[in-house]
Amino acid sequence: MADLPHVLAVSATGPVYWxxxxxxxxxxxxPYSNTGAAAMVSAPGxxxxxxxxxxxxxxxxxxxxxxxxxxxxxxxxxVLSACCxxxxxxxxxxxxxxxxxAWLAGTSMAAPHVAGVAALIVAKRGRPVAPDKLFAYLxxxxxxxxPKGKDDKFGSGRINxxxxxxxxx
Length: 169
Description:
By secondary structure, the protein is an alpha+beta fold. It has one domain (9-76, 107-164): Rossmann fold (3-Layer(aba) Sandwich), CATH 3.40.50.200. It is built from 4 helices and 9 strands. The chain has a 3-stranded mixed β-sheet. A hairpin with a 5-residue loop joins strand 4 and strand 5. The protein starts with 8 loop residues before the first strand and ends in a 10-residue tail after the last strand.
């Protein structure tokens, strides 16, 4: 699929046990993510290692002196994402209340990060951008991960929206 014209292959990254150690690497390749020469960039998509190995352990993360989150450790390694209708079974069963958000992981969580940065690039440029040029600009808006340069796991690196600010056209 990623070998098709104007299709961008995105690999997903995420931490493992961030709830226990906030200094952990946030950019570990997610185990569900495909790799290969077609990988162009990576983006946060969450990690599923803890969910599959240690489902019920609780982690406490202090957000401030007044607020501490006590959640299953698996929640800290995934992405809080928009999902579902208010009456969907998943959030009702999982969170016991109607919500349009859920803790999820996947390349479907990573791809919107890249789409958002692409939108920022188009907005900054002020006019449409040809797909090949947009891909080149996206590569400039990454932080290199893994071996130096483009690699089969992270492509050109993890997408970084902050780099759009200094992007030159």
